[in-house]
Hints:
The complex is a heterodimer of chains A (166) and B (420).
Chain A: H1 2-23, H2 27-47, H3 51-76, H4 89-112, H5 115-118, H6 129-139, H7 141-163
Helix pairs in contact in A: 1-2, 2-3
Chain B: H1 2-35, H2 54-66, H3 78-95, E1 105-107, E2 110-112, H4 123-143, H5 147-178, H6 183-189, E3 193-194, E4 197-198, H7 201-204, H8 206-219, H9 231-234, H10 244-269, H11 280-285, H12 287-312, H13 322-345, H14 352-379, H15 387-419
Antiparallel strand pairs in B: 1-2, 3-4
Helix pairs in contact in B: 1-2, 1-10, 1-14, 2-10, 3-4, 3-10, 4-5, 5-8, 5-15, 8-10, 8-15, 10-14, 12-13
Amino acid sequence: MENEIVFSVLAVVAVVSAIVMISAHRPIDSALSFIVTLISVAALFGLVNATFLFVVQIIIYAGAILTLILFIIMFLNIKDENLPEEKYKNRWLLVTSILILPFSVILINLILGSDIAVNSVINENLGTIKDVGLTLFSQWILPFELVSILLLVALVGSVTLSKRKD
Amino acid sequence: MNTFLILLPLVLTMLYSLVSVPVLVWMERRIAALIQDRLGPNRCHIKGIRLGGIIQSVADMMKLVFKEEISPSHIKNKFYYLVAPSIAFMSAFLTFMVIPYADNITINEKIYHMQALPTDLGVLWFLAFAGLGVYGIIIGGWASHNKYAILGSMRATAQVIGYEVAMGLSLVSMLITYGTISLNEMVTYQSQSFSMIPAWGIVLQPIATIIFIVTAFAETNRAPFDAAEGESEIVAGYHTEYGAMKFGLFFVAEYIAMAASGALIVTIFLGGYQLPYLSTTDLINHFELVLWLIIAFTVVSSLIFLKWMRKHNIFAMKGLNETKVYTTIIIVFTIFAIIVMSYYALGFGHAGAVGVMILQFAIFTVKLFFLHFVFIWVRWTLPRFRYDQTQKLGWNILLPLSLINIFITAIVVVGVNYGN
């Protein structure tokens, strides 16, 4: 019962802040409401006992990536009069949400059929550091290594691009 | 007893963070005065009792609380402006939650954790909320609509991003060494000793210790890395537009962040609540002997303190005679403590587990305050780094050094385990 109350509060906060993020006019409002979304999603991870995912979500997304985004927003120092006008924004939002509706029905059906929805915690170890580590390094070792090579390539690429002399 | 033992670590967290702030401010000023060869604040008193000057910081706190709340008229985003100090304060406070103050205690076959939040996440929890703390500075600087404030918060952000990487990597090498992320298990690991040397983190991993301490200074924005509030260049940096208790929250947050990183350094590198060579079970098994040693130590130290106090406390005040009051309090307290301790030491009562727990709190507190002393000592000894030097130190020296350290640690750990 308590779990359901906490879940509903967190879910409402996550959804509302996500909506604010895409509909806000100023980039800083978007960035800050995105932080709220990320933290409430992290708390949802915590609710299903996935402690490692909870803490990694906060360290990497809320702690590191959003700090960089905010840093860039502050660095550009955009004034309110320089922002685009966005006259038909609400109309666009309405049209896209109607277009997306069928897809979200499929998505909701898919989620309702999954293990987590049926019994809230599948097993005690889901998402703890040991479980995540064992799964990553035994079952998914090849994709994991490929992703890390991809990240390395992106890193080297960005360094060479920024060092290029025109 | 049950509720008490569960609430105890929470109360201790409040004590070590919020309540210790006036003491830390007092330490900061008196040690600064000591280093600069002057006296520091020591005149403020209540009926002649000065407590060495602590009353001064209480008065300062009262001033901040009762000052008029002013918010400048040019601020357009009131919400962000007001929420920023509380974000800084909250995340600093939350980092404290996972520090173990004593070993897990078993009473009536129930295990109580002496952590405010008994989770296995340990170090990761600290990293998560230490990283969130910078949002207070970013949002505060941005909402102030002031060039100095924005410059200050940008400096702070860039610095935290740079040093968080090195901090995380130096912690990774500690995780490889201990083989766990739970802080309590780390402390248990450090109770062993290799021949004569205790297996503390500082002995096993001196490079990681140095990197972590340097990055902890940078993360908490304390000197020599406090370019974010460099008053000679950018007035007061990110809190230029803040006054009264809004500034007070930033101020308290800085001290709590310092206390939290000090506590983490104690836990990971300085053996936490352990005495060298003595594990918790040893202490419980030889509790009577330990108590006799503590009694002897109490008598000697309170006599020395009494003599020192009577010689130096010569400043005449109106009101009560301070020296007399202190002498009475010290003598009464020492006699009371000796009576209580000898009651247990002579074997009339059994309080082994609880007694060892209190002893471990005391050890932790002593180590923590030693770390506070180091933080303050460094602040008043080293000059502030120029900003580009700060960045260069973070990215060009600490980051490669911690990567090399992880590499060597991994090789050694795998080699040792391979032999077994």
